[in-house]
Design a protein that fits this description.
With about 190 residues, the protein is mostly helical. The protein has nine helices and no strands. It has helices at about 5-20, 25-45, 50-60, 70-75, 90-105, 110-115, 120-125, 135-150, 160-190. Helix 2 (about 25-45) packs across helix 3 and helix 4 (about 70-75) packs antiparallel against helix 9 (about 160-190).
């Protein structure tokens, strides 16, 4: 069982989200936009697994990638999205997707890794790559899904002070830009 401090902090996060007290509009907007996208990929996909639905959507809507290239470039010019709080390394799928998009967008991998937080970079060096060749939109959706997971599961709710708060705000802001464009492109199809 978790410590009472951990449970208390989790309860405070839940309470704040339920009351939406002071949470940045970008965080609330990300939740809303992801919910809309979720509605669409649930209707679209035959899979029972959430991740498969997200990736299937990415494969099907790969042509939408061209309309979000600039936003994606800004997203992958930062250190890889972690698999949890603070300096958590990316999971292998997020790292694979990030490196692939950097390469395809002509972004210098070494220049990004050199500015990653040192502790995170050391942990990331131990994360293996997957032998999977993501499509562009599929890779983007995997990264956005990680941001979504970190927010929905409470690992990226820090928004007040410090480097982590600024990074979370930046990831959510870029995610919102991409989600809005993707949602609009879906609607243009119908």
């Amino acid at each position: 069982m978790k410590t009472s401090d951990t449970l208390k902090k989790a309860s405070e996060v839940v309470d704040n989200w339920l009351k939406s007290r002071g949470y940045p509009q970008d965080f609330l907007r990300f939740f809303f936009q992801w919910t809309l996208l979720n509605l669409y990929y649930n209707a679209f996909s035959q899979s029972d697994e959430e991740m498969k639905k997200v990736l299937e959507f990415g494969r099907e809507y790969d042509n939408a990638f061209n309309s979000v290239k600039e936003e994606v470039a800004n997203l992958v010019r930062t250190e890889c999205v972690g698999d949890g709080k603070y300096e958590a390394p990316p999971n292998s799928w997020v790292k694979t997707a990030s490196l692939l998009l950097r390469k395809r967008l002509g972004i210098n991998q070494q220049s990004i890794c050199s500015v990653c937080r040192e502790h995170k970079r050391r942990m990331c060096d131990n994360v293996n790559l997957e032998s999977y060749n993501f499509g562009n939109m599929e890779a983007l959706m995997r990264i956005l899904y990680q941001i979504r997971c970190n927010l929905f599961h409470g690992d990226k709710t820090e928004y007040r002070d410090g480097e982590e708060a600024e990074r979370n705000k930046m990831l959510v802001s870029l995610g919102n830009q991409v989600l809005e464009i993707v949602l609009k492109s879906i609607m243009q199809k119908y």
